[in-house]
Each structure stands twice: as structure tokens, then as C-alpha cells.
Amino acid sequence: MYRIVNRSFMHRVVIRLSAMFLVAALSMFTTAVGSAAGSPGTLGKAAKHSSRHKAKHPVPVGVVFGGVTSAGGPVVVEVSRDGREIVRATIAVQQKCQPSGLTFFTPDYYTHVPISATGVFHASGEWSAPLTEPPITGVTNTGSLSGRFNRAGTSVTGTWSFLSVFNGATGAAVERCESGSVSFTAIQ
């Protein structure tokens, strides 16, 4: 029988993840601000548009959208210069854990998500990592992102979900932390 994950372990995990999220968000923000301000190499260069990718409604090119989720966390979506993909979407989702009852915000992100001609996008993934905090030996994370840009290209709405399952030495789950389906709206 495994012990319930103690709060100090989860607190260390949350602090590490929060620091990583902050660095990623600041990096994305400074890159976007630099591009918007006309950093070297961006002035005078027009975004390339393919005649094969005629959007039914425009998705703004080279734009960063920002907003807040239904759970109160931040969300940032950066669109590529050609408007055909989300370069990076970053979020902080609130996870609720069982059986510990711990609740915390954790970062998640997706890169290079294709945007359809109608402004719709979807991405999902699963990844695992070993951990060395007894009784935890590993974590498996599963997430998904879905949404759409409005016809005017001034906002993006969607849903995001994130699940972390912490495993013990036998591989059995000892803690399950999930966000559920979190809705968001982000504007230019």
C-alpha cells in the first residue's frame, strides 16, 4: 500500500512547473512584442500567403492573442506570419487532485498547431516522465486543445484539458490531477 502523496512533494512540483511556465510566457511575450515593434528583419517583409490556403474568414497573421480561462488562469495564443498555424499556445490550467485534495495551477502548451481554412484547430498529446520522489516513480500527462477564431479574426475561443497521473513503484496510479474541460477566450 502506498502513502498518499504528501503536500510538500506536490508543492515542489508546482513551484518547478510554475517557474517553467513563467519563463515560457515571458519569452513568448518578449518575442511577440519585438515582432510587433519591428525588430530587425521583420520590417518590410510581408507574410507569404498560399493560393491553396484561401481562408473562408481571415485569421490575422503574426498576431498574439491573450486572455483568461474559465478557471482564472492566463492563456496566450501566437499565430504564425502566414496565418496557417498556431506557433505556440500556452495556458495555466487549474488541476484538482485525488485522493490528496490538492488544487494548483500548472502550465501546458502546444506548438505548430494547424489552423483550417475555417479558423478551426485541434491538438492533443500524451507524454510521460520519470520522477524520483518516493513513493512516486513517474507521471503521465494527457492534454487536448480545441478552438476556433471568430470571423473577424479578432478573438479565439476554445477548450483545453490537462490530466496528470502520478504512478507508484508498481505502476499503479497513486494520485490523479485533472483540470476537466476549461474554456477560454483570448483577444488581440
Summary of the model, kept short:
The chain is α+β, with helices and mostly antiparallel strands.
| Element-level helix/strand string | HEEEEEEEEE
Tell me the strand percentage band: over 45%
Q: How many domains comprise the coordinates?
A: 1
Major β-sheet profile: 6 strands, antiparallel, barrel
Helical residues, percent: 10-25%
Shape by Cα distribution: elongated
Instruction: Please provide the count of β strands.
Output: 9
User: Could you say which structural class the secondary elements and strand pairing correspond to?
Assistant: alpha+beta
User: Count of helical segments?
Assistant: 1
The overall pLDDT, averaged over residues, is 77
Rg for CA atoms: 19 Å
Fold blueprint:
Layout: H1 7-36, E1 64-69, E2 74-79, E3 85-98, E4 103-114, E5 120-133, E6 136-149, E7 155-167, E8 173-178, E9 182-187
Antiparallel strand pairs: 1-2, 1-9, 2-3, 3-4, 3-8, 5-6, 6-7, 7-8, 7-9
